[in-house]
Amino acid sequence: MTDLSGIVKAYDVRGVVPDDWDETFAELFGAAFVQVTGADAIVVGHDMRPSSPGLARAFARGAADQGAAVTEIGLCSTDQLYFASGSMNLPGAMFTASHNPAQYNGIKMCRAGAAPVGQDTGLGEIRALVEQWADGGGPAAVASPGLITQRDTLVDYAAHLRSLVDLSSSRPLKVVVDAGNGMGGHTVPTVFAGLPIDIVPMYFELDGSFPNHEANPLDPKNIVDLQERVRAEGADAGIAFDGDADRCFVVDERGEPVSPSAITALVAGRELAKNGGKGIVIHNLITSWSVPEVVKENGGTPVRTRVGHSFIKEEMAKTGAIFGGEHSAHYYFRDFWNADTGMLAALHVLAALGEQDGPLSQLTAEYDRYAASGEINSTVADQADRLAAVKSAYGTREGVTIDELDGLTVTSADWWFNLRASNTEPLLRLNVEARNAATMERVRDEALALVRA
């Protein structure tokens, strides 16, 4: 029996091509997507990986054979696909494996208006249908298949983003952009055209073999080239995008990384100002204390969620939040159908920088108030046992509170840490923050000793 549990994840499809899945499976996913969503029209896009055009076309064929009209938008970033889904009010599918190595590919799916499709919102049903059809000869085609047409959405996508952030009064800025041979190389030239920004491009050539470095800026080794180039150019800032360009990472004029929590706080303040100084801002539980502080200082209401884009998007839809941010550098906007777009976050950062005369390091220092450990992974034999041991060790301490919204969060007056189990590997992930570096290091080392005992 076909078992797709290895490639159908919580939020998307992802695996090695052709070992784990291929165009035959992509066609079945297209048919299942139409059946589960009930769509009579969909939009499909893809990234620059060598396998992406063939997989996307097979998906389109499967969808059309079930009677859906398919608009292919071709090469695009994931947030460009969300733009197409939102502006055309159609369910969509994006073929990308984001920051994964070259041999991987995947599908990120959404309903009309860029609403997420995850394990509990249709993906489980899609997987069940594909498994059934793989073993039983596939779905029956309808009498009238849908038409497959092409449309370029890049110019409209860029115009929509520029309409949301005003850079007209910005001073001229010099910005190094590392696209990592991913889709940022396709979108940045059009989005930034005509703005008072001198772009210094790095690795803009679309190449799904990632010849220069992995397209994963969350790993410090992958932004070393950007940091060096920012310093060499005397640039005002540096921006790195991941493979499908839905996340952006920022470095300041010194080449120092700016925490995604600081970016979340900065953008939250701007979105609240745009909304008359009120509104709800979503943040996950491993973002810095500075995020809810800045939200409150700017008149807003912070709401804390579990880690993961489906939880953020769900909470945004439920609360009418104007903005949401994660420490993984995903940024979500009400004005972008509650979807994540690194490009819009980048425009906000550059607008904030260009509206004043100081350097980026000075601007972001206001939002970077605490000492953080970053995420530390530990391989453990029994995740539940180690979590229980940590809970037991801290549970009776005076002045300490514990909550289990997502893993284990332990909070004191001067520090907090979160310990979460990985869903896919035998790992525990630790994040620590404190009012100063010495306290952070002490708490980090104590918690790690318990985890690794």
UniProtKB/TrEMBL annotation:
GO terms for biological process: carbohydrate metabolic process. Its cofactor is Mg(2+). InterPro entries: A-D-PHexomutase_a/b/a-I, A-D-PHexomutase_a/b/a-I/II/III, A-D-PHexomutase_a/b/a-II, A-D-PHexomutase_a/b/a-III, A-D-PHexomutase_C, A-D-PHexomutase_C_sf, Alpha-D-phosphohexomutase_SF. Residues 8-131, 156-255, 263-370 form the Alpha-D-phosphohexomutase alpha/beta/alpha domain. Keywords: Isomerase, Magnesium, Metal-binding, Phosphoprotein. Residues 375-448 form the Alpha-D-phosphohexomutase C-terminal domain. One of its GO terms (molecular function) is metal ion binding. Belongs to the phosphohexose mutase family. This is Phosphomannomutase/phosphoglucomutase. It comes from Streptomyces coryli.
